[in-house]
Amino acid sequence: QQQVKQSPQSLIVQKGGIPIINCAYENTAFDYFPWYQQFPGKGPALLIAIRPDVSEKKEGRFTISFNKSAKQFSLHIMDSQPGDSATYFCAALLLFGGYQKVTFGTGTKLQVIP
Amino acid sequence: DAGITQSPRHKVTETGTPVTLRCHQTENHRYMYWYRQDPGHGLRLIHYSYGVKDTDKGEVSDGYSVSRSKTEDFLLTLESATSSQTSVYFCAIRAAGVEEKLFFGSGTQLSVL
To answer: Hey, is the C-beta of B57 within 8 angstroms of any chain A C-beta?
Structure first.
C-alpha cells in the first residue's frame, strides 16, 4: 500500500534529449507527489511537486505528468543538459496534521552526455 | 539548506561499538527526521521528531534510538553498530508553511567494519 515503484534504475541521454522517469503507486490517499534531485555528496533537494487533482505541472524545463486513474506519474526533463546529471527520486506524501509521511522510490541515476 | 548541519560527515567504526550522529538546525523547525539511504532502497525513514522530547519510529527503526532534548538538535544513536547499518544517513526538516517539502542535510557516510 505504501510502496512507490520507480523506473528505470538508470538512464543515459544525449544533451538536448528528453529523459522520462516513471513512478507508480498504490495508495490513493497520498496528498502530494514530489520529485527530488540529488547530486553526489549532497542531500536530496525538492525539484517539483504535484497534487493529485492536477494532471500536469511545469517548472522551467521540468514537467510532472500525473495520471490518477492509472496511479502513475512521471518526470520529463526538456532540453536536458550535462548539469542535470544526478539521481532523481519520486516520492508520495501523506499529511497527518503537521507530520508528513514520505515514501520514496528507489531512484534513477541520470547521465546526460554532451 | 534550511540551516541544517550534520556531524560527522564521515565515520568508520567497528561492529558492536555505539555511534551517535548529530543533526543541528538553526531555524527552530518543529519536525525533524532521520533517513538512511541505500542502493536499491531509496530513502527510508528511521525515526522522526515532532517537538522536544517527542519522537516516534519510522519504517526501519530497529537498532536505532533518537533523542531531542533541544529544538535545534536531533541525535541518532546506534547502540551497537552492525555491518547492516553501513549507510548514508540524512537528517531532514519540514519547514512551517511548506507542507510538501523536506529540506535535507548533506548526510553522514557511516561504515561499520
So the answer is: no
Q: Does B2 touch chain A (CB under 8 A)?
A: no
- What cell does B75 get? 541525535
- Count of domains observed in chain B: 1
Position B2 scores a pLDDT of: 67
Whichever domain contains B68, its CATH number is 2.60.40.10
- Tens of pLDDT, residue by residue over A51-88, are 999 999 999 999 999 999 999 999 999 999 999 999 99
Residue A67, C-alpha cell as written in the block: 495520471
For B31, the closest of A44, A99, A106 (CB atoms) is A99
Q: Which residues of A fall within a CB distance of 8 Å from B40?
A: 106
Average pLDDT across each block of 10 residues of chain B; the chain has 113 residues. List them in order. 89 97 94 94 93 93 96 96 97 82 94 97
What CATH number does the domain containing A79 carry? 2.60.40.10
C-alpha B102 chain-centroid distance: 13
- Structural domain including B75 reads 4-112
Residues whose CB is less than 8 angstroms from the CB of residue B104 and which lie 6 or more positions away in sequence, other chains included: A43, A44, A45, B4, B35, B90, B91, B92
